[in-house]
Amino acid sequence: MSSSQPDIPAPLTNLKFQYTKIFINNEWHDSVSGKKFPVFNPATEEKLCEVEEGDKEDVNKAVAAARQAFQLGSPWRTMDASERGRLLYKLADLVERDRLILATMESMNGGKLFSNAYLMDLGGCLKTLRYCAGWADKIQGRTIPSDGNFFTYTRHEPVGVCGQILPWNFPLLMFLWKIAPALSCGNTVVVKPAEQTPLSALHVATLIKEAGFPPGVVNIVPGYGPTAGAAISSHMDIDKVAFTGSTEVGKLIKEAAGKSNLKRVTLELGGKSPFIVFADADLETALEVTHQALFYHQGQCCVAASRLFVEESIYDEFVRRSVERAKKYVLGNPLTPGVSQGPQIDKEQYEKILDLIESGKKEGAKLECGGGPWGNKGYFIQPTVFSNVSDEMRIAKEEIFGPVQQIMKFKSLDDVIKRANNTTYGLSAGIFTKDLDKAITVSAALQSGTVWVNCYSVVSPQCPFGGFKMSGNGREMGEYGFHEYTEVKTVTVKISQKNS
Amino acid sequence: MVSTSSFPERASFPIFINNEWHESKSGKKFATYNPSTLEKICEVEEGDKPDVDKAVEAAQAAFQRGSPWRRLDALSRGRLLHQLADLVERDRAVLATLETMDSGKPFLHAFFIDLEGCIKTLRYFAGWADKIQGRTIPTDDNVVCFTRHEPVGVCGAITPWNFPLLMLVWKLAPALCCGNTVVVKPAEQTPLTALYLGSLIKEVGFPPGVVNIVPGFGPTAGAAISSHPQISKIAFTGSTEVGKLVKEASSQSNLKRVTLELGGKNPCIVCADADLDLAVECAHQGVFFNQGQCCTAASRVFVEEQVYADFVRRSVEYAKKRPVGDPFDVRTEQGPQIDQKQFNKILDLIDSGKEEGAKLECGGSAMEDRGLFIKPTVFSEVTDTMRIAREEIFGPVQPILKFKSIEEVIKRANSLEYGLTAAVFTKNLDKALKLASALEAGTVWINCYNALYAQAPFGGFKMSGNGRELGEYALTEYTEVKTVTIKLDDKNP
């Protein structure tokens, strides 16, 4: 996170939420049941609007549209791959045109600091779209020197109709992380945004239509997990489901996929990511980076570095200065300039975090600062730091997803590696050291999908991202992410004589 | 910037170095002509060795470690290429007009084919920029090993006059995509669109020195590039004869990496079971397109005995109908040949056809007394030993030969030292696959012709060239692989 920010415009003050329906076949639909659900601003607890509540019947409609758009001979299936890429580029340009609208929306609906929404979330969205657009006509099969008189080649076909279930922490960015590679490979999609944050995806739906994607290629069904989400995971005509969210729900999705039609599954789940700071680290940098690695976006990141292991000889100093840093927050409405911490997303998360904070106190961790709620409206929690945390405490084992930092002491390298790996999670990890050998050896040893050395949260669309163990299955972004949206067909043709 | 009306008499197109416009060191200029009207279009600064040296210096500086170009995110390099495509699209009509004036190709071809190819190629390679990936490699021993796919360095590009802008983009796009810097020498007959592109490169915001354009002649500016000790790689499109000189000069100087796209004498094989209408039309366009001035020209049409007479008859009908004239006339399919030298060479080969006993079916001479227009010409009863069956004509002349069996035609098709493209017309699966595998050609077209795409590699077997342009494969030519091996104290597999 850069401390010197370029000039950004002020958020819109009169944002209207025009797009609140179900998006199928490039048209807006009411829910089959007639039900709607409310969407809130977590900073003020005010209702922003109501959105059509999709359930099984709406998902069925969406899947039918997506399946139709995927038929052989359809405009989408017969389109040049390079043209699919052109549409994604066009969509990027439209997102850029509406950047201010979308950033304001993410901030109001998601509790995100406006400057982060504008620069980081929207910046990431544009890069993701443009990166994935470039792959469309570069997804190449192989011709293969098989045995016998055969001509063999592979086609890298789209998987088909992809269900995509999104989280509320990076609503628009995660929406594009899902649809961009899927569309680049030629799939059609049925998306269920998180019920807390459906608005930005619905706005982008209009841009998708404006860009010229054929009807049925992208469909969006807002609704709840146990209804619309479950309908997707167990749908017999969805070929693949991609989910970002909690490990608990991820397991349900994989189970439903198995029980229904063996749809392919990719999961991006939780984490309890270790950050290991060695005594030879550049201390100034390590302090700021480890701080941001936990507190960014109110701790609501799957990569949050929520187990900070600091080498014994620098431990006390590190704690003292981390606490100083954690006290420097201005809490408030994330649209307001000067505010540096927004609210948690909703009451459920808020209560869960406070419960974990209490457990920290009860189980004997030392509360260094914070430790409770803030303000009398909105889901705000004080930035909290615990030291002398031991590995069996709940705050050291469970994903908190809030502004609560655990700082732990370590002595030996082998020991800290063991402790870092002693979790069913494995999403990301950080290391601070100047030593070449230590950097290479420790990154090789950590059971983690991403390891950041002397940095953190460096996420770039060219790089694959995903979890070891129960932090997920599969990878998103990078060339690797595209494998998940491709189904390989081998074609073998008998010929009269093969020659090399 | 450029008006499509006549150029001011004393205006001269300058040399492009460091995003600035320069006069030649010598003060010399040369003229570029409109081959359709034979009038001088304008003068151009004539680059020679000192200008090439200056351009290389600029390109080297732009390539230094720590330079803006070297430090740019790969994704941003891609953005610049993409934005350049947008500007080419914006100025499409201007560029197509310049291209037609300078090269004589029909305006509609320039607009719909050349410019379309330029835009698509730029966008294709824009997408590759941040996808050029090295590997981490499981070697033996207690080491960590990875490769970096680095840019090669300063790349020289010498481009031809038959598709001036398109051939330049075929080189620039992958070169810039991979992070190189470039020194271009466009063909002396057709320097204008390259120089116009220079102005767009500056407008888009490529850092100074990344692209430099030095118009001039082969034996001077071109030779200076081939033998420059600070140019790391050269890409040349042109005749096999000059390609050999380029490779020789590269070896004699600094072993710069060489890619060559050279001539062809491309076989077009029409089997008796082909869709004959399709074959006739494709073979016709395949040889006559761009006034016959294509390295891919279908200049040996092999037709299976049973359908030979019919094929010849229909081909002659097509050739007689081919509209030849002013390239700015929307009805024109064929414009003038590029210059007097080519014109003379083509007529000489036509004469040899007559002398060596081929049957002249139509055409066979120039269109009129003045000008560089040649009548679409068809020869039948052509045999393999005739000059028109062995030498690249690069003009509107279609030699049609007869064959009996597949094995025979494969041998005959492969019998020359060229190997750029081949085409096969058949409905039979096995025959198609057999021929595709047997023909010694970098591209084999089945039931189509000139099907070229930014995504598909293009290049020659044998003396039609070295290396490939377009597709992912082109990236290899503009990348230098560095292996990094780090010894560890302790290894975790």
From TrEMBL, chain A:
One of its GO terms (molecular function) is aldehyde dehydrogenase (NAD+) activity. Its EC number is 1.2.1.3. Keywords: NAD, Oxidoreductase. Residues 28-491 form the Aldehyde dehydrogenase domain. PROSITE patterns: ALDEHYDE_DEHYDR_CYS, ALDEHYDE_DEHYDR_GLU. The keyword NAD applies. Gene3D superfamilies: Aldehyde Dehydrogenase, Chain A, domain 1 (3.40.605.10), Aldehyde Dehydrogenase, Chain A, domain 2 (3.40.309.10). The active site is at E268. InterPro entries: Ald_DH/histidinol_DH, Ald_DH_C, Ald_DH_CS_CYS, Ald_DH_CS_GLU, Ald_DH_N, Aldehyde_DH_dom. It is an enzyme of class 1 (oxidoreductase). Belongs to the aldehyde dehydrogenase family. This is aldehyde dehydrogenase (NAD(+)). It comes from Equus caballus (Horse). The lineage of its organism: Eukaryota, Metazoa, Chordata, Craniata, Vertebrata.
Automatic annotation (TrEMBL), chain B:
Homotetramer. The active site is at E261. Pathway: Cofactor metabolism; retinol metabolism. PROSITE patterns: ALDEHYDE_DEHYDR_CYS (PS00070), ALDEHYDE_DEHYDR_GLU (PS00687). This is Retinaldehyde dehydrogenase 3. GO terms for cellular component: cytoplasm. It comes from Equus caballus (Horse). InterPro entries: Ald_DH/histidinol_DH (IPR016161), Ald_DH_C (IPR016163), Ald_DH_CS_CYS (IPR016160), Ald_DH_CS_GLU (IPR029510), Ald_DH_N (IPR016162), Aldehyde_DH_dom (IPR015590). Residues 21-484 form the Aldehyde dehydrogenase domain.
